[in-house]
Design a protein that fits this description.
The complex is a heterodimer of chains A (108) and B (113). With 108 residues, chain A is mainly β. Chain A is 0% helix and 59% strand. The N and C termini of chain A lie far apart (39 Å). Chain B has a single domain, classed as Immunoglobulin-like (Sandwich), CATH 2.60.40.10. Chain B has 113 residues and is mainly beta. Classes of the chains: A mainly beta (108), B mainly beta (113).
């Protein structure tokens, strides 16, 4: 079965507002990464967390291994934030299990 | 900046044909991975490798083979392509350490007709 459950699958925000994406894990994971798919289709690293929280600009991520979840918060959303975001949990042997993605649309 | 290059970027194949997707990394990373991305499934791991000469099965290896002839190169091989293998394929490399950040290629769009 799927190791990672990502929600929501789609999210629409108005410019300047914010929201959170969430990933739940079926088992204890060692770390989590968040990616964004860019306009060329490549996956760009946003965060890597083994625990706690990290912040970068208008993005903030948290990872709780014990409670088996991770979140990605976006504040003051801008049009260029639109895209598809993926979480990926690190299991054993350095392999990543990906969520199904969240398609974010930021509207004026 | 880490560099992972996939080729071809786009490929159209016929059912039953052989397809080879190539991946090259200049990061000197030990680990390399092949994923496919399909709507509603995120990225699913097909094969991975810990170094030259090693290949390991991922979550969905059926219908695929992999080859790691060198540290830099990792190929995904479809011996008998089927329409269900139409997808976008991503290669990634990563280093074994405290932070296993993966670096992805730009993807290969494969259509099997």
């Amino acid at each position: 079965g799927d190791q990672v459950e990502q929600s929501p699958s789609a999210l629409s925000l108005h410019e300047g507002t914010g929201s959170a994406l969430r990933c739940n894990f079926t088992t204890t994971m060692r770390a989590v990464q968040w990616f964004r798919k860019n306009s060329r289709g490549s996956l760009i690293n946003l965060f890597y967390l083994a625990s706690g929280t990290k912040e970068n600009g208008r993005l903030k991520s948290a990872f709780d291994s014990k409670e088996r979840y991770s979140t990605l918060h976006i504040r003051d959303a801008q049009l260029e934030d639109s895209g598809t975001y993926f979480c990926a949990a690190e299991g054993n042997y350095n392999v990543l299990y990906f969520g199904s993605g969240t398609k974010l649309t930021v509207e004026p | 900046e880490a560099a992972v290059t996939q080729s071809p970027r786009n490929k159209v194949a016929v059912t039953g044909g052989k397809v080879t997707l190539s991946c090259n990394q200049t990061n000197n990373h030990n680990n390399m991975y092949w994923y496919r991305q399909d709507t509603g499934h995120g990225l699913r791991l097909i094969h991975y490798s810990y170094g030259a000469g090693s290949t390991e099965k991922g979550d969905i290896p059926d219908g695929y083979k992999a080859s790691r002839p060198s540290q830099e190169n990792f190929s995904l091989i479809l011996e008998l392509a089927t329409p269900s293998q139409t997808s976008v394929y991503f290669c990634a490399s990563g280093s074994w350490g405290s932070q296993n950040t993966l670096y992805f290629g730009a993807g290969t769009r494969l259509s099997v007709l």
